[in-house]
Specification:
By secondary structure, the chain is mostly beta strands. It has three helices and 70 strands. The chain is elongated. The protein has a 26-stranded parallel beta sheet that branches.
């Protein structure tokens, strides 16, 4: 090869070698700072490369040992947990910062750390503090080895000995014998022999009471066991009753009643009554009620700790507190509402005479009787009755009205809205007379808005399509005067009361259809064409006397909600239909009080009950205290005191064969109302003459029931006659008989002690009949027609002045009727209250028995005599 050709070839080879070396270096370049192993060189120049690699490692140009990456702070890569780098210019700080002489950087939870951090302040080991340690001293949080123990420990740590516990007591160990106390055996498996210092424990499988839960030992109810009984006694506080006088306890008490009824044993299948439920106990406390209570099973006892200690506090505006009514009682049937709004419609398609709603169960917000307050309508100069109806079958009937039979005057009605002769009819009694407006025919199966309004000059009737525009007056009648309502009148939905006392017989029943949303107001709601007819349930306002939308009570009891201008209350659903009613037996209510804070609340209604024992009970602020009705007979009521507001009645008995022993009524329009047969023993009536117009009667006996009543040792405390409204001590209308034995019956306001209106018989034996004022026209008043007879045997008469026994001839007699008179010039007059026109008088000359004495024709109160000289004459009359 020539020189010219060798040189170029040599140069090409060198350049190829360099290129190959350069490429190899680039291909084998390790990560920065990492150890670079000697690669396996190949190709041209591989020997030279290997020699240079060895020389570089010997010279230090290339490190032999691995080298941890050493970037600067600015070139630290993204943090990786657990990665450690040497930062050439970092400071020892957490987190890392630049400007230092170098530091190790550790990746941890997103940060590079260049210093070891301080221990956490709450660092612990198995719950034991390991910070603030102090060596061999009591200071600090840790106990060091060798430190001596104190208190109940002996020896030194770390293995002290527990010498005592709880400040000196001997500790229990696994070998300690369990002697004394409630345990036996040894730990760790002792036997519980007794609990609570000697009591037998409760164990799995044991029969008897079950204990659910208990918390606390405060004794204020928060530690009560829930929903349980002890030996058949259901404590209402175990069912959630608070008894604080402000929390509604009606649901809790009803739950206790339902639980007690659930265990009722009924009968034994052989005809023997073994009705036994539980006893519901009310510890001493005031129990605030938003709903009435319902006793709906036999054998149930509702018992308090005393009639001045366990107090039921009805807080609604009016209505009963307790209903003793059996299951199956049908109450007031209802259907879906006829118009929009909450509630129902009353269903009178089933029957028109068995059931109704008495809107006047209450006297009306503690107002004087006879004033336009509540449903005492007398004196109102404006008035409205309105309702929605749907008449289903042709026939007459009452929608709503106020009516009664007050006495021999016949039927009376303050107001009636009814269907009469197939037409809408409105009836009103005012001081100017009775007024009746007849409207158009009522179509069947049509929902109507109907109303009777009175504005002091005109009585108007309306029958309109709900929601319609421009409904004109359907009928009108010129009427003036204030409304007149007898105090005995019921105000009912679905009937015209024919008996002059609460919930008696009916003069007329309901329409044959549905009645919805009834409102009675003390203003004329309409006086001309109605621009837009109402089409939804009514609301109560300041002019509302009573309103019901037939809302049922949520606890299922037979009550319907009603409203007045002040609030709401509950009206009992009266139903005389006995089909399907379970007659309750052997129930008891005793040792409780009913203290109303509502303005017109009543006490207890008993329906369909036998052999019940009720009392002692104290009732305060009652509109009506106790009402016995329908199938409630052969029951015993005793030790019952009713402090009555000037409402209607204290105690009402509209059933038969019930016995009342020591009952006391203070106030009420009439203290007692007996529409059925029974016995009153030691009744006490205190006239309430200081509020409103005061009481009118001690006892009233209404017509229709054929009342037969025995009264033993009555005590009438009549002290205030200034009101002039007292009518009679005892009043009976069309009764069978009333017999009074002993005691005293006083009267006032020149009223008779006894008044019989219509047929009936009465006997008064050994009773003090007294009047506290005036000279009454007669001691016994007899009115009406029919067979009547009154006999007084050994009565005591006080305060009557010269009043005759009766102004009615031939009905009243008194035995004995005897006395003496001294003749003047052979003539004289024997005056005695017991002489009547029917008396047969026998006289004799006591001075000279052989002389004849001739009685004249007896008059009421006296008989003339003729005889000899001035002799003394003794006579007797029957």
């Amino acid at each position: 090869m020539s020189k010219r050709t060798w040189w170029p070839v040599l140069l090409a080879s060198v350049f190829a070698l360099l290129a190959s070396f350069s490429s190899a270096r680039a291909q084998n370049l390790p990560p920065p700072g990492a150890y670079s192993p000697i690669p396996n060189f190949t190709g041209v120049g591989a020997g030279l490369q290997f020699r240079e690699a060895i020389n570089d490692r010997f010279s230090g140009t290339q490190q032999i040992l691995p080298f941890v990456v050493g970037p600067t702070f600015a070139n630290l890569p993204p943090e990786q947990d657990g990665l450690i780098l040497y930062c050439k210019d970092c400071k020892q700080a957490t987190p890392c910062v630049g400007g230092g002489s170098g530091a190790w950087a550790r990746g941890d939870r997103g940060e590079w750390y260049c210093a070891i951090g301080a221990l956490e302040t709450n660092l612990n080991a198995n719950g034991n503090k390991v910070t603030s340690l102090a060596n061999a001293t009591n200071a600090g949080d840790a106990i060091s080895f060798g430190q001596t123990s104190g208190g109940d420990l002996s020896g030194s740590l770390p293995n002290p000995t527990v010498a005592t516990v709880l400040g000196g007591q001997v500790p229990v160990t696994r070998s300690t014998a369990m002697t004394g106390g409630d345990l036996s055996g040894t730990l760790p498996a002792p036997t519980v022999q007794t609990v609570m210092g000697g009591k037998a424990p409760i164990y799995s499988g044991q029969t008897g009471a079950k204990v659910n839960t208990m918390a606390g030992a405060r004794g204020d109810g928060s530690d009560a066991l829930n929903g349980f009984n002890v030996n058949g006694i259901y404590n209402v506080k175990a069912f959630g009753a608070k008894g604080d006088g402000s929390t509604d306890d009606s649901g809790a008490i009803q739950a206790a009643i339902n639980a007690a009824c659930a265990v009722n044993t009924g009968a034994d299948g052989a005809g023997n009554f073994t009705n036994v439920a539980g006893q519901v106990f009310l510890p001493p406390a005031p129990y605030y009620l938003s709903n009435p209570l319902w006793m709906n099973c036999s054998g149930l006892q509702l018992v308090g700790a005393g009639r001045y200690s366990s107090v039921l506090v009805p807080a609604y505006d009016f209505g009963k507190t307790i209903a003793v009514v059996g299951t199956g009682y049908q109450g007031l049937p209802t259907v879906a509402s006829l118009v929009a709004g909450a509630g129902n419609a009353a269903d009178f398609t089933i029957n028109q005479s068995n059931y109704y709603l008495n809107l006047r169960e209450w006297g009306g917000r503690f107002g004087p009787l006879g004033t336009p307050d509540g449903l005492n309508l007398s004196g109102l100069s404006a008035f409205t009755i309105e309702a929605y109806i749907e008449d289903i079958s042709a026939g007459d009937g009452v929608i709503a009205g106020s009516g009664s039979v007050p006495s021999s005057a016949g039927y009376a009605a303050a107001s009636l809205l009814r269907i009469n002769g197939g037409n809408l009819d409105g009836y009103l009694t005012t001081t100017t007379g009775n007024h009746d407006a007849s409207g158009p025919a009522v179509p069947l199966n049509t929902i109507l808005y109907v109303a009777l309004t009175y504005d002091g000059t005109t009585l108007r009737l309306y029958d309109c399509t709900p929601g319609a525009s421009g409904c004109a007056v359907a009928a009108s009648l010129a009427v003036t005067g204030a409304i007149v309502q007898d105090p005995t009148e019921d105000v009912d939905v679905g009937r015209w009361a024919g008996q002059s006392w609460p919930n008696g017989s009916a003069q007329e029943g309901a329409i044959k259809g549905y009645i919805d949303s009834v409102r009675i107001s003390k203003i004329a709601r309409w006086t001309g064409t109605i621009a837009t007819v109402p089409n939804s349930k009514f609301n109560a306002d300041s002019n509302t006397l009573i309103l019901t939308n037939f809302e049922k009570n949520p606890n299922g009891s037979p009550f319907v909600k009603a409203y007045d201008f002040a609030g709401s209350g509950w009206l009992f659903e009266y139903n005389t239909n006995r089909t399907g009613v379970t007659t309750l037996t052997r129930n008891s209510i005793r040792d409780i009080a009913i203290g109303a804070i509502g303005l017109d609340d009543s006490g207890i209604v008993v329906d369909a009950a036998h052999d019940d024992d009720i009392g002692p009970i104290q009732m305060s602020g009652m509109d009506m205290g106790l009402e016995v009705w329908n199938l409630a007979f052969e029951n015993n009521f005793h030790d019952i005191t009713v402090d009555s507001r000037p409402g209607r009645y204290g105690i009402v008995n509209n059933s038969n064969d019930n016995n009342f022993i020591y009952t006391k009524v203070n106030g009420g329009w009439a203290g007692y109302n007996f529409g059925g047969a029974g016995t009153l023993i030691n009744p006490v009536f205190v006239q309430n003459g200081g509020v409103g117009t005061g009481s009118a009667y001690g006892i009233v006996m209404p017509p229709g029931g054929g009342v037969s009543l025995e009264i033993h040792s009555p005590w009438w405390d009549v002290e205030n006659g200034a009101t002039g409204t007292f009518k009679a001590g005892i009043y009976g209308s069309a009764i069978s008989n009333v017999d009074i034995f002993g005691g005293q019956v006083f009267t006032a306001s020149a009223a008779p002690a006894l008044w019989l209106d219509g047929p009936g018989n009465a006997s008064v034996i050994g009773t003090l009949l007294g009047s506290i004022e005036g000279s009454p026209s007669q001691i016994v008043k007899v009115t009406g027609t029919g067979t009547q007879s009154v006999i007084l045997v050994n009565p005591l008469l006080n305060g009557w002045g010269s009043a005759p026994l009766s102004t009615t001839a031939g009905v009243v007699t008194m035995t004995p009727c005897k006395g003496s008179v001294t003749l003047a010039a052979g003539a004289g007059t024997f005056s005695n209250v017991c002489v009547t026109t029917a008396s047969l008088c026998i006289a004799r000359d006591a001075t000279n028995p052989s002389n004849a004495v001739t009685p004249g024709v007896p008059g009421n109160g006296s008989v003339s005599l003729s005889g000899t000289s001035t002799d003394t004459v003794v006579l007797s009359c029957n």
